[in-house]
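pinning this so it doesn't scroll away 📌
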Amino acid sequence: MRNPWLALEAGADPARRAGQVRRAHEEFLTGGSIATPVRDVVAESWRRCAGARVAPEGLARIDLDDAALAACRAEHPLAPVMPLFRELLGAIAEDGEHLLSVCDARGRMLWVEGHPQVLRRAERMNFVPGSRWAERASGTNAPGTALALDHPVQIFASEHYCRPVQSWTCAAAPVHDPRTLRVIGAVDITGGDHLASPQSLALVQATARAAEARLAALGPTTPAPAATYALDVLGRDEALLHTPYTRATGQPVRLGPRHSEIMLLLAAHPDGMTGDRLAHELYGERDVTPVTLRAELSRLRHLLGPLLVSRPYRLRERPATDYDAVADALGAADPGAALAAYPGPLLPRSEAPGVIRLRRLLEQRLRRRLLASGDPALLESWLCTSWGEDDLEVRDLLHARTARAAHPSGGPGRATSAQRSAR
């Protein structure tokens, strides 16, 4: 099955595909229909761009002057891992054909680096530090679309919504705060058509994961302020919302399944979400009208009052969540504390794509920490849960550790080299 996030399948002719997509782009702009071979992820992005009234001939606008750019760079959580980005992608940025760029969660380019000649070419489309490349501002592009969908993606040539960008190809991956799991920016490589390969997408994705691991090792730089609100979402299908009033009464608000999903997603995206993006995170590819989402949000607003605001949809104050406690312990390399704080999967029955992604991310990080620790007590605790009882990898590691502990010098529990050869 073809990977929908890759621009070209094996054996595709880049020049021919670019021409086909360019014609499809023109047909969409003039008639509104999208034909093959346009990928679904690109078609959906074009529709979002049209809905946001992005000008097809437009250029990215400059949001940050030199002083504001310097301040944003100094304060941004990705600043400490810029040396890592340069280490992993620096050769690409200096080869005279590519650019390395890093943007914040709003799509504002904070760093754009590469060969001076390539940088000058990129200036013609305002691909410069301080410019805003969010999808709703600058059309379909890899960093902007990666942020919009919270997923690594390639955008090839004429797949770009704005014509001034269609001579470039790019691959980008979002980067998450390892404590809160929210998107804090994206890393991107931009160049020619040869970037439309599986290797470039895998490279930026691996770089993003390495940055998240480095951030987790560094730990939080400043203590988070105490939250007024709290949200329990682990090991339960209906979230519990704790407010100043409910703390006094001891009766938290129990949210329905859909409201639980919405609150979790808004907590995970404190900068806010457009209606289109929130609908995609909740319903995926299902054919759901915007009225359905607005009705759900209207009902939720009756419960939350001024805590929920719109344009974009966001929470005035981000609630502390119980998955924060697990993420904090993982970031501090304390798998025992993380396991103790983990009462079960995140909203386990939810089928919302955004919730599934957060659920898998947290569970995978926890499993990796447990496996890396090799602590028999922790491994056994994981296997004694309903969600970990069938984990064969953990079971095999526990068996190996207990066998080694029982026969530390290679006694009856360990085959000799002659016995292994005979097998």
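📌 and the second one:
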Amino acid sequence: MNSAVIASLLAAVPGLMLKTDPADLEHYGRDWTRRWTPAPLAIAFPESAQQVQAIVRWARVEGVAIVPSGGRTGLSGGAVAAHGELVLSLERMAKVLGFDAVDRTLTVQAGTPLEAVHNAAREHELAYPVDFASRGSCSIGGTIATNAGGIRVIRYGNTREWIAGLKVVTGAGDLLELNRSLIKNSSGYDLRHLFIGSEGTLGIVVEATLRLTAPSAPTNVMLLALPSFEALMDVFAILRSHLALEAFEFFTDRALAHVLAHGAQAPFAEVHPYYVVAEFEAADEAQEAAALAAFEACAETGLVSDAVLSSSDAQAAQLWRLREGITESLAAFRPYKNDVSVRVSAMPAFLAEAQALLAAGYPGFEVVWFGHIGDGNLHINVLTPEGMGETEFVARCSEVTDTLADILQRHGGSISAEHGIGLVKKPWLESTRSAEEIAVMRGIRQVLDPSGIMNPGKLFDSRPAA
């Protein structure tokens, strides 16, 4: 049966590269989550938007579901293919197509790695400011599909702010060119923003035109050791009042211990319970003096126990490694991840409730906290206890997430800040979106993917439960 379906695909899309080797099916059939067993039909590697269109039209006729695939660095199960879907990998569509010096835009195919975009922008003495630790692996299409944030949202915003135009293939097989890189465009609905954050459920991004900006002024990096969780927001307020912050990231002593076990260098002689990495403009002596003044203001009030100010690019990279290396250092423990957000102003009250919930809900579990505290985004990683089976572990964590979702709803927050809903967070979408909003989203999905073939089961089920 599968061989006949695959033969019909190759006939419909001449020259298409296709893989069916078991090792490839496993590799391309999952993302960084490991909860589902990959079982795709095959892996397709189109080289053009026209081939993507042909694949989608074939899939509609054959009734085959499609899972779009970029770098598969997602943490929500959004790129999982576990039920005979065709994985459509965009890794062969990774070209930089053009640069416009007047508009300051860079046009790339969707499979282009984020790091390649950074390098291409740098060649023109400009910058694409969206950035995060998986920059070498993730693709631009994937970052668009999840409206990725990262470490500099506090200064530059999410991916959405930097997308000038898109070319997408809808679930109906139509090729749409959205916004055409216009700065002003009031000619009806801006469909570009429907596809940003849509997790591949409406169609496939095949090309993106990205806005670029001037490179940041010279920056410096400061690592602060904090004596208590409660000090975080006070330290943030002081630094924000003194400095032009590019990033404000926090992590706990447990997170640091795992990164150090992976080979990072200890920043202090003593262990402290909480840490902050702050990056800020330091283009002149006045800004350097402001950084010292900010530290002194924190130290005088007992908010900070110790600090390191980088004196070179190499030392700055070492300090950033302490934050950016956390996810990789935890991978072997198969963590259950909560990626949540609230308004920055609501963070103190939310933190108090969430900390109490996790202490009560995970007795004896190791919980590792870190995140983009400056934009209201927390990553909560619960590590699998030794000897506990995955089914029991996920069930325990899901019970606590039920309560966490209730707390988020009371504080007007979101169960997914930047990783998307996918499969992992689907049960809690209603804590973030009203029934009316979800009904509208279902209607949009039905129009753009009338056959229900685009990444089915992700975000929400195609049809509401009876």
